[in-house]
Amino acid sequence: MVKTFGEFLIFMQSMLVRKERFAVLWQRTLDEAILIGIDSVFIVAIVSAFIGAVTCVQIAYNLINPLIPKSTIGFMVREMTILELAPTITSIVLAGKVGSSIAGGLGTMRITEQVSALEVMGINSASYLVLPRIIAAMLMFPLLVILAMVLSITGGYLAGTLSGAMSAQEYVEGIRTDFVPYNIAFALIKSVVFAFLVSAISSFKGYYTEGGALEVGAASTGAVTNSIIAILLADYVLAAVLL
Amino acid sequence: MIEVHNIQKSFNGNPILRGISCTFETGKCNLLLGGSGTGKSVLLQCIVGLMKPDIGSITFDGTVFTNNKVDIKQEIRRKIGMLFQGGALFDSMTVYENTEFPLKMLTPEMTREERRDRVEFCLKRVGLENAGNKMPSEISGGMKKRVGIARAIAPNCTYLFCDEPNSGLDPATSIKIDELIHEITHEYGITTVVITHDMNSVVEIGDHIIFLHKGQKLWDGNKDEILNTTVPELKEFIFSSSLVRAAKKVDEETEGGLAAVVEEPLKETEEAPKTPNS
Description:
The complex is a heterodimer. Chain A is mainly α. Chain A has one domain (42-242). Chain A is 84% helix and 0% strand. Chain A has nine helices and no strands. Chain A starts with a helix and ends with a helix. Chain B is globular and about 60 Å long. Mean pLDDT of chain B is 85; it is low at 269-278. The chains are: A mainly alpha, B alpha/beta. Chain B: Residues 253-278 are annotated as: Disordered.
C-alpha cells in the first residue's frame, strides 16, 4: 500500500514536469470539462432532486411531535443537502460515472499503445492526458454540487408541498432559518477535494493498466471503489478539520 | 544512423536482451528479424525510449540518447516517427486529425493552412486522400497502418520505426504496406527500422537485416545474402515457413527451377483474353 501511494505521488509529480503549451492544455481542459461536467448534468439532476424529495418526505414522516414547527423540515433538508448530501452523494455518483470513464478511457489508450504513441512523439502523456482531466474535474464538480444543492432543495419543496406535509410558506421559512453562509463554502471545498481524489485516483488506475480488456474493466472497477473510499475518508477528515 | 551498443535488458532476472550491438543505416530499410519472444520489440522499445535498458547505449546520428538530458532526449524523440502494431490511432480523432496531431503538438509555428497542406500531402502519399473525415473505427486494418505511416512522416521524421507493420493483414495488403515503407525510406532518406518475422518483407524491403535469436544478434546482412546463410538458427527460421519450404521443393524438383514455374502463370495472366464481364 505504501508502495502504491509512492507510485501515486510520482505519477502526480510526472504531470507537472515537461508540461505542454498552455493553449494545448487549456483546449484539452475545456474538452474534458464538457465530458465531465455537461455530460453529467442529467444524472446529477435526477439523483439530487429525488434525494431532496425523499429526505423531505422521510423527515416529515418522522416529525410527529406537534411542538416542533413544520418549518423544521425545510431547515433539515437544507442543512443535510448543503453539508452532506449535495457534495458527498454527488461526488459518489460522479465517481461512478466520471471515474470509470477516466479509468476505462486511459486504460484503453494504454493497451492500444496510444499512450506509447504520445511518448514516442516526445509528448508527456501524463501531462497531456491526465492534468486536463484533473483540472476539469476540479472546475466542474463544484458547479455540479451547486446545481445539486438547488435541485435537492427544490425537490424537497415539491415533495413537501405536493404531498401536503407542509405549506410552501413553512418550507421557505425553514430553509431561510439560521442560514450559515460558511456551510456553502465548506461544501464547495469538499467538492474540490473530492474532484481531485476521483480524477487523480481514476487516472492513476487507468494510466497504469496492463494487459487487455479484462484489465481495463478491473481498472475501472478499482477506480470507482478506491475513489468512493477516498471520498468517505476525506469527508470525515474535512468535517473534523473545517467544522 | 542509429548505433546500438551492448544493450542488455532483463525482466525479473530473466535476460531478454543479451548485449546486442548493431547499426541501423540511414536511407535503408533495416529489418529486425526473429521469431516470437526473441527480444525484437523490447529492443525497439529501448531504442525509442519507451523502455530503459539495464546496460548499453543508443546513439542517434552521433548524439547519445540513453541517460542523456531530458531536453536532448526530447529533441531526438521529436525526430522519431513510429508505426505501431495496431496503428495506435487516437480513437477520438478523425484520420485527418490523427495525421495533423503531431504537427499541432510539435510545430506550433506552423499556420493552420500549412498544416492542412502537409496533412493533405501525407494522406495523398499513403493513398488516403479521401479518408480524412473517417474515424479509426470506420477503416480497415491496412488503412489504419497507412494512417499510422502518414502520422509518422507528417512532422518530417528522420527515423521511422515500424513494429510488425504486416501483422493482421492479408498478403496483398502486406506487400503494399511494405512497398510504401520502402518507397518512403528511399524518397526521404530516412533511417527506417522494421520489426518483422515475415519472410515476404525480408525479400521485399530488406536492405539491411539483423537476425535476433534468444536476445542475441546472430546474423546481419541483406536480402541477397540471407538465403545463403550458414547460421543454423537463421536457416531454421527461414525454412520454417511453409511457403518457403514448398518453393524450395518446387525449385529442386522442377526442370528450370522455381523461376520457370512462377513465370508461366504470369505469362498466361498477361496474355489471357478479357471476358465480356471483365
